[in-house]
Structure prediction request, 432 residues.
Amino acid sequence: MKPYKISVARLSLIMIGYFIFNYAYSITYDSGGFAFISMGKELIFSYGAIVLGNIFMFRDISKLKASFEDNAFIQKSSTIQLVLATIGFFMQIIGFKGAPLNYIDNYPVLVCASIVYSIIIMIAIYQTIKLGQEKDNATIAGFIFGGMIIFLTIIALVIITSPSIKHTTKHTTPSFAEEFQSLGLKGKVEVVDKHREIEAFYGTAYKLTYTEKLSDGTILKETTTAQIQGRSGEHLSNFFLLSGTDLETLLNDKEKALFHTVKQDEFSFLLDVYKERPNLQQEEDSIKNTTADKINKLFDTPIASSFKFGKYPIENYYVAIMAQAVSNREKGDSDAAGFYNITTKDLMKNKGLTLDFDFDLSKIKVENGSPVDTLKEKFLSLPKNSFSDGIYNINCYYENGIQKKVEVTCPFVVEDGVGHFEEDEIVENQTN
Prediction:
């Protein structure tokens, strides 16, 4: 058998392939995906180089080992190379997500693989020296070539990718943990997945899980997503109001500062976390039943029905949440950083929720004036603290003396236990 001649160029092909791929990938990524077509040839070439590089790596090392069975140095060094090549191959498989190792999703693995293949190449260069397969000048040239491939590939990867890496690698689990802690969240945050995003936005999306044991024994576990803009590192937010209202203009300084952080996608679950309290439904039912009982006793007949909580206008609802969260935090309530223990009464008091119900005025005995006036007189006659603070939208309906059906909403506002009526809202006024 003719002795196998070591080819440093073939052994370097896999590193050259990854260098070209990441060069093209960086241009494509930085362009927001628009450069994909123009970089198509480079990407195809890099795929081919990576595939052939893996084949040559195992084939050439195996042929070298078979050609020098009596050479102890070659046998030992080739075995080391095969082991390293196997490790490198599994690194590629583990990091494979439909594309070769890239600097966004697999940067640590990519660097480790580059180091592994660099060692293989350096061993190959030393093998050529020991075997005397090249003349002195050629050996020196091969050593320089191999060294340059190693050096330039690693350095180029760092230089090419550094603008993007500085925004992607810093947002690791420890960083997110610090961000959650800075908000007062005392639970555990984990990064379970990340992927680059080009179309929806330019940057990286992280899937997170947040777990916290609350003071009532509840285990809060939330899945959330952090979206980090690629160039600025800004944390994105999908929070918006259909009303078009800029919510921050309705908040005081403390509420505004808290909302500025909470509206980020990874924290937005806090705005609804109070709904996960085990006793929320009982609390709401208690308010409805208590209110219905007092009204029915006031009029000596079942007269109120269809109790439900409303969130109109919606911006008032979020203002109430932020106000109560700030209040809870100032009192030392750190369950999900002050948002968990927001009660229905809290939201009503802060005018974020209304209690809406229907009222059949036809059942009211009217001596003087209209049935609406009679209703109001009855409600205003109640002692202080008869109702919880909040807004009660009383949807009334009756027929007047000229055969017209009248529907009107009477907002009854209770503040510090004292109630008053605001201007009626005519819902419908039509002839039967």
